[in-house]
Amino acid sequence: MFTHPQLDPIAIHIGNFGIHWYGLMYLAGFMAFLTLGKWRAAHQIWRGWSVEMVDDALFFGALGVIFGGRLGYVVFYQASYFIEHPLEIFYVWQGGMSFHGGFLGVLVAMVFFGRKYHKSWLGIMDFVAPLVPIGLGAGRMGNFINGELWGRATNAHWGMIFPRVDNTPRHPSQLYEFGLEGVLLFLILWTYSSKPRETGTVSAIFLIGYGSFRFLAEFTREPDANLGILSLGMSMGQWLSLPMIVVGLAMYFYHQHKAQPLKPF
Predict the structure, then answer these.
(1) Cα(174)–Cα(176) distance, rounded to whole angstroms?
(2) What is the pTM of this model?
(3) Fewer CB within 10 Å, N side or C side of the chain?
(4) Binding site listing
């Protein structure tokens, strides 16, 4: 049995100003995107991508993550509250982001990126997909440091007590998601995309992988208090992940059937 270390959410104190761990995790994810993206841009498979384009992809993607993530949280998890307190939608410093909303935001942002550089939208997503999991993993580590999004009660010997919640041993579900959505998904996508693939299949693997890993991890994660368990015994996270799996499978088999060579540009 373990106890959560209860780290200070603020990593660096500078007078009355503080730099939060969660912000540093976002920064780490963005830096990983740039570093790996520029390495990929220099690879023959991804000819047609430049360093400047990777910088721009991050800029567009970051906007999609921030705006989409916030709106997704408002719509998917706290709609009734924000209907009564609409101005608080803009209080992003109070927390509240949704991966699925951020994901949709990135999809929209990449449409505008594609128009700017006259690139195939699916080709862009195939380039971007393997760069995302490290940021997802960093975000889950930020959740763990903050002691938020804790797991369900468990009798497992690796259960962890989160003192800010209660004295009940719980699954460290943030670490499960770090390992699945961050490390394992990155390894799968990076390996799969290291060779030319049919356009759209890398994106499909991302959808299948993330959707499946998130669906499984949700069985150990405490449901949002205001929502609880929804129909068919599933959480909101699971209901939002199911369409990703279905669409990913459909995309994969469709593009495999078409058997078109990878066209990253």
Answers:
(1) 5
(2) 0.89
(3) N
(4) 140
